Amino acid sequence: MKSRLKQFDITPVQYGVLQCIWQLNMHNPKEIAQFLDLENSTISGILERMENKDLIIREIDENDRRYIKIDLTEKSKALEAPVNKVVEEVNKDVMSIFSEEEKQTLKKYLRRIITI
């Protein structure tokens, strides 16, 4: 995944952050950190690097200065389709080594892990 995302100058964890915004409409750093199971200090550094790459904009809420909102830039909006295509290809490649029965078993175990 890392090598395939390199062409877009994003890391797998940055992809995770972007997915939270693209697909789940999450705009709060704490919410994203919790979803990705990251420490608040870790997400802060990730967001800073993403902001430096012009992937996101961090804005302080006018009504509550404690709240930071994350928004996409035009650059990251344009990356959604090509990045998701590459990730889909990677997932397809990974799954190709399994039989149909093994795929179903793997998916079953992954669903179980998600519920923990």
TrEMBL record:
An annotated Gene Ontology molecular function: DNA binding
InterPro entries: HTH_MarR-typ, Tscrpt_reg_MarR-type_CS, WH-like_DNA-bd_sf, WH_DNA-bd_sf
Domain HTH marR-type positions: 1-115
SUPFAM superfamilies per UniProt: Winged helix' DNA-binding domain (SSF46785)
Keywords associated with the record: DNA-binding, Transcription, Transcription regulation
SMART domains associated with the record: HTH_MARR
Pfam families linked to this entry: MarR
Superkingdom, natural source: Bacteria
Name of the protein described by the UniProt record: DNA-binding MarR family transcriptional regulator
High-level lineage: Bacteria, Bacillati, Bacillota, Tissierellia, Tissierellales
